[in-house]
Amino acid sequence: MTRTAVVNDYKHPQPGATSTLTLDEKVGQEIVKNGIKRPKGYTVSYHANPEVEKMHFGPKHPMKPWRLTLTNKIVLAYGMHEAMDVYIPRAATFQEMTEYHKDDYIQFLSWVTPKIKLDPEASNIFPYNMGDDCPVFDGLYEYCSLYSGASLDAARKVTNNQSDIAINWSGGLHHAKKAEASGFCYINDIVLAILQLLLYHPRVLYIDLDVHHGDGVEQAFWSTDRVMTLSLHKYDKANFFPGTGGSDDTGPKNSANPGAHHSLNVPLQDGIDDESYVQLFKDVVNPCIGTYQPTAIVIQCGGDSLGGDRLGCFNINIRAHGACVEFTKQLGLPLLVLGGGGYTPRNVARLWAHETSVCLGTDLHPSLPAHTPFIEHFAPDKSLYPELSQTGRYDNKNTGKYLREIVTSIREQLRYVQGSPSVQLQHVPPDLGAIRDEVEREIQEEREARDFGRRRKERGAGIRGEYAH
What we know:
By secondary structure, the protein is an alpha/beta fold. The protein is built from 14 helices and eight strands. Helix 7 (140-159) runs parallel beside helix 8.
């Protein structure tokens, strides 16, 4: 059969070389293009267990752990992992989670399954607030222990001075209470992480950027002066979850209680924009730092405060949200950075990738790398910074006068804070590190037992490479 002209005329576009770069080469080009390198003077760690990404709340549920897959793919595509210490953390143990949560609640999470939920006789499921918002799904306990373990691991890296900034985007589930689930949250990993920080830090400032009030964290530290909580959120007591966090919610009413005036809230109306939000953030955080003098900060970066979020009502763009993280970072204190809400996955992924770059001190090129997996989900612009403030835009009901009143209210509350608290007389939580060490010893013993068995087999086989003693 005679060769066709098509075959005869074909030539490789680059004779003697391949025209296709490997993925590593493409990532390497992005690293050079964006000037990504390890920060000078501080260390950033990134804590991510890929098993969390596989969890599924249900087809109609707004919480999509898959947003973590998108986030990590963008981080890897830009090559930011090369500038951080990356850890795959282990799951939290039962004992670690019961440092805050009640034993019977954790026991319940460990055995409940969707089949039990469907049993009409299983009335004991409802005391823990399980239902449409907090469904029972396959792998629920594993999910809880994985995201909690990542936050604990990040907190330990901070307390051990292995990291100055530690990131866990799977964490930040701020609604969970001591003995019940709430608002898509089952275990309050933030509380567990702060308890770990308190072993070494006398005062921790918690900042919450989620569109929903950080009620679970506020409640957990209601009666202590060793944690100050500051939450910026949409507030409508009757019509917006969780209906708490008004300007007069400042902690226990009894001024003799150590936690009085240590719960600060910034209740916002619909539609706040970039400029107003960033300025307000600076105006309330600055006096908190000056008065309270925290020695570590935890910031929850809920992405539902972005414009166009499925459950949100603000007009904030990615760079403005990130400017708050940048301001917090510039304070120079040990920093734990967590995820949170966010129900338009592609925008949440963009946000958290951007805020990862903020932690690294890197300005990213706005066009997503062409080799980013699932890049079609970011169409049509395929940009890291789409214009979100015009997506389903809300009228801005936050007047200048109203925002100034909020700042005045915060400053007034801080006048009652009697400087930094004395930690000598405060309760010190148990050392979660001891539990961690015990678990790691058990893992090491199991590994050594396996190695010993393997060596015995090799000695018996009489082959090269056998172990001689």
